[in-house]
Predict the structure.
Amino acid sequence: MVRTARGRTLRASTGWQRAGFFVCVLQLLALLAPDRTHGQERRALVTEEERNTVALYAKARRAAVHVNASKRVVTKFEEITPQSGVGTGFFLDPAGHVLTNYHVIEDSNQVEVISDAGQHLPARLVGTAPALDFAVLKVDLAEDAYQPLPFGDSQGLVIGQKVIAVGHPLALHGTLTIGIVSALGRTLPNLSAELQDELIQTDAAVSPGNSGGPLINSHGEVVGIVAAFIQGAQNVAFAIPIDFAKRSIPALLTMGHPYRPALGVGGSEITSPVADLFGLPVREGFLVEEVAYGSLAHTAGIRAGSRVVTLGPQKGVVLGGDIIVVLNEQKVGALHEIAKFLLFAHPGGSVTFSVYREGRINPIRITLPPMQMAIDSAQ
């Protein structure tokens, strides 16, 4: 009896020990397991804005590529010395076309693209628009290896809007910087007529190697192409509005150059002070000072001035010519306004200039050349 009782007691005692052992194991597992409540609190610390940025980067980095452009130059010792430039580009369609800046690949005889996965791919040059600083490349890469970026609307940008830049500054692959649209309608020296007063300014950090990379809005759409920054300044960078690329890319893919008809005039913008200074009959418009022989303007009968008034050793104004005041019912005053209008015009279509001449407003209609005849030439 006692033995049996002792046996039972022993067996009961062993059962309690086993139960205690399992409790300890469960407690240990609980300690080692992640704290879900704490994890939820930590996840809550990531804001919706940050989640948006993370998602944008995950998408954009698959589209952004590193562009290596090399060329051979002959030194004074007649040695062939390779030189290389680096920049950024991004896929714009499922066919493997890559958009970048023209200045990234300028004068190059070999271009290589490095994908997000690290693949080194030889690139073919499809088309260039030097005046607009665009170039389109083509690489052979499986469609599922990259993700093209959609284009947004640069006309809808507002100052203060969030933008991000993804690129390869200083050869640091896959770098993201974030900022805002700091200003609109900026210009830089030596810009073409179309790009004057059109650049997007941003405080997103940009360094050498960012050129050609996408500037993206909160919806993951490209609104600009990073093109320049001010050396020594703190986060003052510039991008070309994507609307210029949207207009030019179809022609680059088919013709190798953009549709950019040259009007063939030179002159000055008329403002109220200029009108007062020279006694001009209108307060706003574009004063035609010269007309290129054989140009669209010359063929249409637009007249240049003949009376030169000198304002300095290298500055003067030619008076007496036509004053363009309206272009297709839109007031114009600066040459870049005319150039931009023609860039976005329909090939082979017609435009009507309202020109002030000898006390009257005269309509002058100009038929634009077809696509293949509108070569990339200066206005």
Notes: The longest strand covers residues 80-91.
